[in-house]
Write a structure and sequence with these properties.
The protein is mostly helical. It is about 70% helix and about 5% strand. The protein contains 25 helices and three strands. A three-stranded mixed β-sheet has the order 1-3-2, sandwiched between helices. The two termini are about 25 Å apart. Bound molecules: zinc ion (ZN). Zinc ion binds next to helix 6 and helix 10.
């Protein structure tokens, strides 16, 4: 939560500036004696916001983000980002940066947000926002790991708790409202309205920016975490290079803020020396051996492309993506070397195919898909992503996807495969296969709202209305919308009363229990609201 609190500048220069600010935010409030000084200070335990209180603030914010139309649980991108995030979490635990108490108390949940600007931010309670613009612009998973580990470290080092303690004691609901206000302000699409809400955003900014020392600490801790997680430390250098470039481009009179607080040389120097140290220590330098590198690059290019398309760039941009892809498709493939297709080519074709499908030009989409698949069929990871895209585009076209009859749900392992092929199986009239697999999935992952939602559709298709309504309730519950969840649980109870054979005893008692738990949570929240005020 750094650049969030800044007035959004003109659209063209927004992305890189936002990124720059996310990484480089100066001390915006008076420094306390404990965090001045040249050496890294003991940022220490100088805070009294408990982790439980911080989590409550975070939950309030999360409740709103779940309802934000820009919140996007895209299963394919979510899997990709989780594939970076989970190793970072594991490394933070192993290094002792993430202790058991915070690990259990906080959510450690990422929100993908449909926003073209380049940003990632930490929120109270272990929630994080990641703009699709960031995923779309980084050149490697190592660069993305650089940003995510930095943001994670703001939370593990309790920087947010310190910020909130440093300022006047505000009620948690007020803190949540302030963060949400700043979030909303940062999203204003044009400068004029940004100027109007800018006042509030700046007020929030002056209270909630991380200090220079906190940024340095997040750089240092984040670096250790990402290297331990197996990412290439050169990703850090590449990321800082991007930031420096942005800084130079934006260094004009329109941004006094940037002029007075350039990406400071100390942080850059520290990052560079860390990268060099890692390289000369003889540690494994890369997350992937050279032969994997081409595959990894192709996969990243596809996922960055997907992020750019899903960020809703508008028709003109979609058309440009299609044209770029057509140009790439025309390039003759070197024979016997499909993997030599460079990542940029693969990414362009992926973007073009998806953009064409969004514009409902399915003939174009199919032709670009064919060109894409010809270039990635020797790369298992990329091939899997290509297969998913084929199925998605068939679904968008209203067809019964070929995968719908071919796929065995029991064999699927990734969430993206389950959710995409699950829809394909529903289209192919195989709802029972979907519900039996998803039942075990949600039993292990009750917070997976999208899986509950798909399960609900699968039950509906089988005429199992009580189970369908209950799964719908669980989906609302997973997104912290307790009143809506209770409403659905009660609807399920009503259905059971009106048609006694609609559910068995077991199902009925689960629904009663869940309804009572949800009611208790709503009461607890109301009580907490009174205390907080
Ligand atoms: Zn930071």
């Amino acid at each position: 939560m750094t650049s969030l609190f800044l007035k959004r500048p003109a659209r063209l220069i927004t992305p890189l500036l936002a990124l720059l600010l996310a990484f480089s935010v100066p001390a915006a409030w008076p420094q306390t004696p404990s965090n001045t000084g040249a050496s890294l200070p003991a940022l220490g335990d100088n805070f009294d916001l408990t982790s439980a209180a911080e989590r409550r603030i975070g939950d309030r914010i999360a409740t709103s983000i779940f309802r934000d139309p820009d919140y996007l649980d895209d299963p394919v991108l979510t899997d990709y980002v989780q594939g970076i995030w989970q190793p970072l979490m594991a490394a933070a635990r192993a290094r002792g940066e993430l202790g058991q108490e915070l690990d259990e108390r906080f959510a450690w949940q990422l929100f993908l947000l449909r926003d073209r600007s380049i940003n990632a931010f930490a929120l109270p309670g272990g929630y994080f926002g990641v703009h699709l613009g960031l995923v779309g612009v980084v050149s490697s998973r190592d660069e993305l790991a650089t940003v995510l580990s930095h943001e994670m470290s703001h939370v593990t080092q309790r920087h947010i708790a310190r910020l909130m303690t440093q300022q006047s004691k505000q009620a948690p609901w007020m803190m949540a409202a302030m963060v949400l206000g700043a979030l909303a302000a940062s999203k204003s699409p044009n400068a004029a309205s940004a100027a109007i809400v800018g006042g509030q955003a700046l007020a929030a900014q002056s209270q909630l920016n991380f200090s220079r020392d906190m940024e340095r600490e997040a750089d240092r801790v984040g670096f250790g975490v990402m290297v331990d997680a197996g990412f290439d430390s050169r990703g850090v250098a590449a990321m800082f290079e991007k930031l420096q470039q942005a800084s130079r481009l934006n260094d004009n009179g329109a941004f006094p803020y940037l002029r007075s607080h350039p990406l400071n040389t100390q942080r850059i120097a520290e990052a560079q020396s860390r990268v060099q140290l890692t390289a000369t220590n003889g540690l494994p330098p890369a997350s992937s051996a050279a032969q994997d590198a081409a595959q990894t690059r192709a996969v990243h290019a596809m996922m960055a492309a997907r992020a750019r398309v899903l960020a809703a760039p508008g028709v003109d941009q979609q058309r440009i993506m299609i044209e770029l892809a057509r140009a790439r498709a025309a390039v003759v493939l070197p024979s016997a070397q499909p993997l030599s297709a460079d990542a940029a080519q693969v990414g362009a074709l992926y973007a073009g195919a998806l953009a064409a499908a969004q514009l409902r030009d399915f003939a174009q989409a199919r032709s670009l898909l064919a060109a894409l698949m010809a270039r990635i069929n020797a790369n298992p990871q990329a091939g899997t992503l290509g297969d998913l895209l084929v199925t998605e585009i068939e679904l968008m076209e209203g067809k019964v996807p070929a995968a719908g009859t071919r796929v065995d749900m029991a064999q699927l392992r990734t969430r993206a495969e389950l959710l995409v092929y699950g829809r394909a199986l529903l289209a192919a009239q195989r709802p029972k296969d979907v519900s039996s697999r998803l039942q075990t999935w949600v039993a292990e992952r009750p917070k997976d709202a999208a899986a509950w939602q798909l399960l609900s559709s699968a039950y509906t298709a089988q005429g199992q209305s009580v189970r369908a309504v209950r799964a719908d309730a669980e989906s609302r519950f997973a997104e912290l919308d307790y009143p809506a969840a209770l409403d659905r649980f009660k609807a399920a109870q009503g259905l059971m009363r009106s048609s006694p054979g609609a559910a068995d005893y077991m199902e009925g008692s689960i629904i009663d229990t869940r309804a009572r738990q949800t009611e208790a949570l709503i009461r607890e929240q109301a009580l907490q609201d009174k205390v907080d005020r």
